[in-house]
Amino acid sequence: HARQTLSELPEKAVVYGVSSSWSHAKKLPQPMEPKVVHLLRRGDIDKPIREVSPGTISAISGLPGRFELSNSNQESLRRAALADWLVHRENPLTWRSIVNRVWQYHFRHGICDTPNDFGRMGGEPTHPELLDWLAIWFRDQGQGSLKELHRLILTSDTWKQASILESVSDRCLEVDRDNRLLWRMNRFRLDADSFRDSTLRISGRLDLTVGGEGIEQFVKTAGPQATPVLDYTQFDWNSKTAHRRSIYRVVWRGIPDPFMEALDFPDLALLTPKRNFSVSALQSLTLYNNNFVLHASGWIADRVKSEVPAEQQVERAVQLCWQREPTRTELKSFEAYSTTHGLRALCRVLLNSNEYLFID
User: Fold this and answer.
1) Are strands 44-51 and 38-41 parallel, antiparallel or unpaired?
2) pLDDT tens digits, one per residue of 106-147
3) 37, 44, 130, 312: least buried by Cβ within 10 Å?
4) pTM for this structure?
């Protein structure tokens, strides 16, 4: 009865408007000026001591802890002063923090393993001199260019190492079993976004268009309240928007995509300075049966069939997915499997293999 009553209600009217001020409920004043912040006695909001002026961390030497503003009540001046403080050449936090996060992206561990905490409660950097050198290089020579910073790291000998070495010294394992000193590369699994984009890339369908609106890879229907109902299983993977990069996906907080969630896509309701990586049976089942993987297997098979004759298709599929030539044993086994189950089924197996999912 309740659902029937809700369905009979008229469609909601939508009004768009922009205002610099508005009336609050509970007779609160309009936000014409920044809210006054007080230093509190023992954190009690009922016991203010004095008003706090606009400023930042006073413990950082070399930079003023208070902003000298011509009009401290003007919100834009406060934001501009904070922006200038953040990008100041002598700010020791900004440049270190940025290079540490980029390093963490490539090695899965930052030089400082607590990217959100560079204070005393955070972890100590394993290579403090390297962190300082990178910060100064990024500020001065790189001119704050993230592209140049990525290029510097990706062309380094450290990044070019393999995770599996032919011979491992017992001394290395004894001193640094967790590889914090980077005597080899860390082996890691592709994150959810990289798996999706890489799969689209080798299928030849990745849309590299820059910019534009976000894409909804689900079927959305009205929910009983303000939050809609999202059905990820009914999305048309052959639609025009299905092949855009993951960065353009529309993601609803509290309504995760089951496929991306199984691959440890972070919860948007929580701060995630470091992504978690797990290996579970649920991941295997999801990767083998999800609609995206099933469609992608067909796309890769179609690409292979369009590029090479039948006798070379298995070899070409392995080249695309594993970025190497198959061994004789692998080729013989895969050809038998493809003959029995089809090339699409073989591509599905290749996408679910450790060699595709993990970077050595």
Assistant:
1) antiparallel
2) 998 899 999 988 888 888 999 999 999 999 999 999 999 999
3) 44
4) 0.78
